[in-house]
Every structure is written in structure tokens, then in C-alpha cells.
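Quick one: C-alpha cells for this chain, please?
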Amino acid sequence: MRKEKLLLKNLVQAVHTFLKKTPPPKTSSNKTISTPPVHGTTPDKPAPVFPVSAKSRDDVSSDRGKDHTPKTGSKPSGKKTTRPSWQVSRFVVPEVEGKFRFHDLGLPAPIMHAISDLGFKYCTPVQAEILPKALTGSDVTGKAQTGTGKSAAFLVNIYAHLLKKPIKGKRLMGAPRVLIMAPTRELVLQIEKDARGIGKYTRFRIQSILGGMQYDKQKQVLIKNPIDIMVATPGRLLDFQRQRILHLNKVEILVIDEADRMLDMGFIPDIRKIVHSTPHKNERQTMFFSATLKPEVERLAEQWTRKPVHVEIEPEHIAAESVRQLVYIVTADEKFALLMNLIVGQKLERVLVFVNRRDQTRRLSERLQRYQINCAILSGEVPQNKRIKTLENFRNGRVRVLVATDVAARGLHVEGISHVINFTLPQDPEDYVHRIGRTGRAGASGISVSFACEDDSFYIPAIEEYLGNSLVCEQPDEALLVLSPPPRQKRPATQKRSYAGKRASSPSAKRHSRQGSRARKPHPRNRTNKPKVAGVSGT
């Protein structure tokens, strides 16, 4: 018994000694693992919950800007990298007498960063007039054509307002803080694109609402997300509003663009309903723009704005200074030859050709394609999805010539359009100004060429009166009116045809052919006199 107790005692001591000498298990880093706190938090203070409304990249529309924010669930890198913040001092623009800089406006750094990326140095005349007043919260009414930079003017004002007045806490789904109304789908998409460019370094959500595409997708975005900036056409917006998934009682800034076009297209009753759904004019900022100020348009501006600052840029200043205009006097039959020789002879790569009717776009496009000119059409009968694809192909150079009706005259902005050709002159002088405004935008140089035949020449006096100056009219050189025949389309013969041709041309083939025909004829002795079936004719 004593031996067993002694043995047990020695065993316990041995185990104790072993445990005492054995070191504790080591981690891979030999350090205590702990999760670092979020910047700006303490152990007693939880990490802040950021509102989901702030990310514009979650929009249904495509965002071409790169997103450097880590996605949910991604593993953080081992090394902590700090990206230096952009400073306005890096964007150097010298002071020039007679020019107004964006630096002089005191804009937030994210806006200045985007302006720097876009290459904007000095304000256009309309921007220099609008921005100092709008940034103080004043209402603005403006008479300005497209291409003057007015879209950038109201977008800069919008982003400055949103950055200075952030919203904390929960927000209502489908309730935009800013509403921008435009008459056409093309203009809506262009404004959205400009908005994403200027708001590149902000986290505001942008949503376009327009007919002809993505109905269910747009609806789901409104149901599930708060919206900061909404760009819309009237019809689709009213549709969603009637379903009570779109709420306009939180609108802080209302922008109505191309008001004269709204009037011409019959949208004013819809616009009235929309405006009445927003807060009172004393509780919002309103920016109202129109290419022309007809009496009806002026009355609308008075009703929807409060003590507005009025800005006016005359159309003749735009047309005469930035666009070289030329009119060729030709017959109707000479127009196509002149068009072809201008495109081919001058090696034009991005040409916008205007006609007055849809059927003219189809016929002209077919003739150009016979001459192997890569072209496309843009008119009201083209579905919206195809319009977007066509414009994208025109922008990236896949389409050389775009044949369009006046649906493309407003809101279309494509960089690098050197020539606008009026294959037929418009009846309305305003449409002429809008057409040639597709080139020579924002002070850049451009060329407008118009073909005036027996019918078109009647519209020239009204256009000259509207512009306030005479147009240069001349007859083209005879060489420009000579049309070469279209290139022959080679049709490669199939293998079957070529083989058959070879067989038919050889003597043996002819012999076999004769033998085959004789073999198919029945021998007189093999004929049987079968009775004819009633109702079956031998012919």
C-alpha cells in the first residue's frame, strides 16, 4: 500500500514538472490578435452607420467612373495604404482679364476636382452669369441655347447645395432632393452623363426616369432606394407618381430645361402637375431655362419662380462666332452627289446629317450604305435602346455618318463633330440654330453646311432674320456634283455552284448528263396501262 501511494505521488510530481516546463502555444505573429477600431470610434462608442443613400454607383444606369470603395465582404489588405487627398492648389488656372474662373466661386473640393478632370478652366458666359447668383440660393431664369454650358452651370450649383446641406438619418424611398425635367430622352441621358462627370467625387445617387426602357428596373430603384438627383421626362415620372412610389414633396431644387420645347411638344399640362407636387416656390430653388422666351414661356417662368435673376445669351452670338456657316445652292437631284463628295473628298469622320422626315433618314442611309459609308439613323421611330447604342457607336467612331431628324437636335452632345450638314433645311429657324449647335459647342469651332434646293431656299430669309445676319450662299464646284457609280458588290460563289459549273463545262459531264436523261425515260415495254383516278389531273 505504501508502495502504491509513493508511486502515485511520484507520478503527480512528474506531471506537474512537465506542465511547468512546457511553454504556452504560440500564435503565428507571437502577438495578441485584436481587431483594430474603426477610425473615429472608441471601445465605448460603436462605429457609425453610414446612410445607404449616398452611393451613386448603385444606380440602375451605368456609372463609368471607377469605384475604389471596397465591396462588402472583401478582405482588407495586410498593409494600410493612405491616399493623399486632392487639393485645389494642384489645379492651377491663371487669371485672365475678361474671363471668369471656377476658382473664384469658392466651390467645394470634390466639385473642383471633377472640373479639373473635365478640363474646364474658365466659365462660359452663361456660367459666369448664372453661378454667382445661383450659389446664393436665388432663382434663375435663362435664355440660352444648348452648347452654351448651362447644364454644367445648374449641375455645379446642385452639387454645391447638396454638399453644404447633407441629410442625416433615415430618408424616404423614391423622394429626390433635386428634380431636373427635360423634354426628350436624349437630353435626359445627356444631363445624367454630365451629372455623373461633375459629381464624380461625390457619393450622391443619380437616377434617370424616362420612357421606352427599363420600366421594372426603374420602378424597383424607386421602391428600394432614396434618390438625391433625378433627371426625368414628364410622362414616365407622372406614371410612377400615380403609383405612389415617387414622392416630390422633398424637392429642394427644381430645374426645368428646354421649356420652349416642352411647350411645343404639349408637355406643359404634365409639367404643371409635377410642379404643383413639389414644395411651394418659396421653399425651393427653381432654375428655368429656354432657348426662346415666347409669351407663354415667360408666363410660366413668372408663375414658378420667385424674384429670379434673368440671364440671356443671344443666339446670334453662338452661331456667328463658334460655327462657320455655308449654304450651297443646288438642285434636289444634286444633293446626294454633293454629300458624298464632301464626306469622301474631305475625309470627314464624324458627320451629323439632318433631314426633316423619318422616311428621308431611311432612304438617305440606304444610299450611303450602297457606297460603303458606315452610317446609322436616329429618329422618333427608332427604339430607345437602339438609340442609345447608335449614339454610343457614333461617339466611339464605329458610325461615320449619323442621319437624324430634329429629335437629335436638342440634347445631343457628341465630342468631335466637325461638320453638321443640313441635307434639307428646317422650316423653323429655331430648329436651324439647334441643329448647327451640335458642333462648335462651348466655344469650340465647327462647320455647318446646308443644301438649299428649290424648296429649301424659301426658308433662308426667315433663318437670316432670326440669326440677325446674312448667310453665305454659293454654288459648289462642278466636280462636287459629279457622282461616281457605287462600288460593285462581289458575291462569292458557293462551293456547290462552282463544282456544278465545272461538271457542266466538261465533255464527260455532258455525256453523263445525256445518259442520265435517257435513263430516266421509261422503256415502252415497261409501260403499264393504269386506270386514271377520278379527280386527279395529269397537268
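The longest helix spans residues 2-21.
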